[in-house]
Amino acid sequence: MREEPDFKFKQCLIIRNDIKMSCGKKCAQLAHAAVIAYDHADKITKKRWYEEGMKKVALKADSLKQIYELKTMADMAGISTALITDAGMTEIEPGTITALGLGPAKSEELDKITGSLALL
């Protein structure tokens, strides 16, 4: 067996678990979060994360309030964020906040913010 790599950087993608979305809808919302949060990250962090293999972790938040709290903590820590608001064309009401992307950033910094969240 191969030894698991030590990722110093990662991206956390967080979906709201309190609203009904199909699996495909959740995947699309998390993809939006990943792309936009990446776009907001600084050039050096992007490069280091990319070279490491672009680790991503999909997590669940229990409420909109929790999404806002996580975003606030990440903003205060200087971590790139992406708050995703749905257009309402398929499954949910327009303007519904569905997901949050954090990073890429140092894994240890993201763990301080997201360490209590359950995996999706």
TrEMBL record:
Reactions this protein catalyses: an N-acyl-L-alpha-aminoacyl-tRNA + H2O = an N-acyl-L-amino acid + a tRNA + H(+)
EC supergroup of this enzyme: hydrolase
Keyword Hydrolase on entry: yes
Keywords per UniProt: Hydrolase
Family, as annotated: Belongs to the PTH2 family.
Domain of life, source organism: Archaea
GO molecular function, one term: peptidyl-tRNA hydrolase activity
A cellular component annotation (GO) from this entry: cytosol
One Pfam short name: PTH2
EC number: 3.1.1.29
InterPro entries: Pep_tRNA_hydro_II_dom_sf (IPR023476), PTH2 (IPR002833)
Protein's job: The natural substrate for this enzyme may be peptidyl-tRNAs which drop off the ribosome during protein synthesis.
Biological source species: Methanomicrobium antiquum
Presence of the UniProt keyword Ribosomal protein in the record: no
UniProt-listed CDD domains: PTH2 (cd02430)
Name of the protein this chain belongs to: Peptidyl-tRNA hydrolase
